[in-house]
Amino acid sequence: QVQLVESGGGLVQAGGSLRLSCAASRTIFSGYTMAWYRQAPGKQRELVATMAAGGYTYYADSVKGRFTISRDNAKNTVYLQMNSLKPEDTAVYYCNRYYGTVVWGQGTQVIVSS
């Protein structure tokens, strides 16, 4: 079954931290570059970070130095550690492949209060 399940979101004050998790089915995850995306109210979905199966990472300028993407290949899970959160990080966060996206999961809501 093709599936992505995001979790770990919540309400946090500016400057705080959250760790998001995304459990993927093996057919989605294994060998693929995985990515985190986010969609703020009234805005288009945007790419936040990617991580290749071999470990290469990419970060959007807006999160560089604050967010860290990681993956556990044995668990088919990708993580996003978010530190020094800002109100502008408020969004629904989704994971998916970077190349060849599949059906989107429900996402996990992150709200950063000022």
Key descriptive features of the protein:
globular, four-stranded antiparallel beta sheet, 1 helix, 114 residues, six-stranded mixed beta sheet, 4% helix, single chain, mainly beta, 10 strands
SS element count, helices: 1
| Binned strand content | over 45%
Helix and strand run: EEEHEEEEEEE
- The residue-averaged pLDDT reads 95
Helix amount: under 10%
Please mark out the parts with pLDDT under 50 across 5 or more consecutive residues, or reply none. Answer: none
The assigned structural class equals mainly beta
Radius of gyration: 13 Å
Shape: globular
How many strands, what sense, and barrel or not for the largest sheet? 6 strands, mixed
* Overall strand count: 10
Order of adjacent strands in the largest pleated sheet: 2-10-9-4-5-6
- Give the termini distance in whole angstroms: 40 Å
